[in-house]
Each structure stands twice: as structure tokens, then as C-alpha cells.
Amino acid sequence: MSVLPDLHLHYVQACQNLSQPENPFIARVLQEADKNDEISTKGITLKLAGNNHLVPVPRVTDDDLGVLVSVLGQAAYITGLDLAYNVLTDAGAETMATFLQENSTLRYLNLMFNDIGTSGAELIAGALHSNQTLVHLRMTGNKIGNQGGMFFASMLKINSTLEKLDLGDCDLGLQCLIAMAIALTQNKSLKAINLNRPLLSSQEEETTVHIARMLRNNSSLVELHLGKHGMKNFGVERLCEALYENSSLRYLDLSCNNITCDGVKFLGELLKKNQTLQILDLNANRIEDVGAMYLCEALTTWNRGLQALSIVSNNITGKGLLALSQAIQCNIRLSHIYIWGNKFDRNTCMAFSELLQTGRLGPGCTDVAPYEVDGELFLAELSHGLGKHRYWAPRCHTVAPGAANASLEIVPVSEY
Predict the structure, then answer these.
(1) Which 8-state DSSP code applies to residue 298?
(2) Which of 102, 127, 244, 280 shows a CA-CA span of 20 to 30 A to 313?
(3) Domains along the chain?
(4) Is the model's pTM score more than 0.90?
(5) Do 317 and 349 form a contact (C-beta atoms < 8 A)?
(6) How many other CB atoms sit within 10 Å of the CB of residue 230?
(7) Looking at residue 37, what is its pLDDT?
């Protein structure tokens, strides 16, 4: 390990050399990094996210990034870079692409919700053809479009280092998702991918069919997000058919789709035989009481693999929720359940209050908490859930291990 340079001093000098004004936010973060005693042994992530501050900070620009990477070029102990919610454009993506081609220590890069477009995506994806260190990349919310996603699909056929790729909310299209599925039949290194909210005009679920075909052959993917795909019961059936032959997927996100009780029937039958799946997110579908019963049947008697289940906002009444509470009593493996947004009655409130009071459910393992008014028991919402830190996370790490609130908290993929 090389002698630790003074990051802040080097930043000030680089700003002078490049005639670039200092960004006080970057300067402060680098000063904090210089004071970190563990920097040389553990490596650190520079947290330069433009949101998440009590006092507004100047967002990182393309010019700021140019100065920053000139400083980080010699800082081998900087292993992560969080640049989310800034104002980086394709010009900044070009700077970052050059840095990725030259850098051999960065393992985590978060570029979510900047202003990177198709050409920027091409540059970053191209840099990952040769980069052999980056493990986790977040491009969430950059409008790279279908063509930008195609560049990442091509990259996945070549790159053998990347483990986690987040392309949610990136306006991906039909051709891109099909290309992704084809690439993942060959890629053996990627463990987690987020493909949430593509822009699909077709109602025929071609993308789901291709993804299901990929799952039959892929033995490395652990986490898959397919939220807001317009998926219906036909698509769920195709996925379930594939997952009978898949023994690696542990986290399946089907939130915000058009799944009804008929689709959940296929999931219930799958859970009777599949003991690999550990996290299932059915948030914001419409499974209703009948769908809840299908899940209860599998979880009560057959399944001992699932650890976390989200059925938030699924039009489930007290009958289905009460049955789920009884399934939890029978299934000690199921440790996290999220139920807010359904139709609670008195028996539901009493049942989940008892689960919490007896310790069967931990307070951080569900999204409700009991309270009493005039002798009547009610449930209040807690800010917990499988997607709690998908778009926002505190600067200090406050998520308890195993809380299932952040990506793969139950099933770690890597250090990041």
C-alpha cells in the first residue's frame, strides 16, 4: 500500500492547476476522508451524493468530476464512489469512463439520478469491457433509453467482474430487455440486476418469456427486479415454470405489476417445491384474499426457504391477513413480512400485535406497529420495507443486518 496522500491538499492544488473553482462539498468530504484512521486498511467509499443533506450542498458538475478523478488517480484506498443525485451529463460520463479504464481499485460506483444519456451509457459500458475491478454499478434513473441499455447488454457478454448492475428507471425498451436476457444466458458473474420500470408498449409479455428462458440456464443470478413490467398472470406462469429448474435465484421482485390471485396460484405451487427463494416482493399487485390463501398453504406446510414476503397494497382483507399471521406462527423461517396498504380489521390488528409482542416478529421486520385508542387496537405504518433504501439511504449506515430493507441485506452478494 502506498503512502497516504493528503486528499484535500491535492484537491486544492488540482483546482488551482486546472483553474477550476473549489466545490466546498467535495472539499469537506475529502477532509473527512483524510481523518479516517481505517482508510489504509479497509478502503473507503467517498459519499458525494447530492441529496441527503440537512443543508443544501452544491451538486457535483462535470468540471468538478474532472478535478476529482485527477486526485483519486493516486488514491488506491478509495474503493467506492457515490455520485448519486448530482448534475453529471454525458461529458461527466466520458471523464468517468476514462477513469474506469485506468483505475484498478474502484469496486463500487453509484451514478444514479444524474443526467447521463445514451452516449454517456455507451462510454461507461465500453470502459467496462476492459475494467476488471468494478463489482457494483448503479445507473438508476439516468435516461439512457433502449439504445443505452443495449450497450450494457453487449458489455455483459464480455465483462466477467461485475456482480451487481442497477438499470432501474432508465427507460429501457423491449429490444434491450431481450438482449439483456440473452446476455445473461452467457454471463456467469452477474449476481444481481435491477430492470425496473422499462418503457414497454406491447402487452404480450415477450420480455418476460425471454427472461424466463434465461432463468432456466442461468446459475449465477441471485437477485432479479422486474417491477413495473406490466406483468400479468401469463408472465408469472412462465417465470414459475423456469424457476422449477433454477436453484440460484434468492430474491424475486415482482412489485407494481398486474398479478392477480390466478398468478399467485402458480407462485404458491412453486413455493411448495422451491426452497431456494428467500425474498419475494409482490408489493402493489392485486392478489386479494384468494391469492393470500395460496401463499399461506405453501408457507404453512411446505416451504421452509422464504425469509421475507411483501404483500403491501394487494387488496387483502382481514380473512387473508389473519391466515398469513397463522402461517407465520407455523413457519419459523419466515422472519420478515410487510402488509401495509391492505384492509385491516380488528382480528388482523390483534394477530399482528401478538406476533410483535411475543417476539415472533422483530420490530424491524414488518411495516406495522400496534397502538391503542379508547381500548381499541390499531396498526400504524412504519417506514420499513424491501425497497426502503432503494432510492435514498442515510449517510451513516443505519440498516440493521438482516433487516431486508436494502438490496440483499438477507442475501449478501459482496462487500457492497
Answers:
(1) I
(2) 244
(3) 39-381 (3.80.10.10)
(4) yes
(5) no
(6) 16
(7) 74
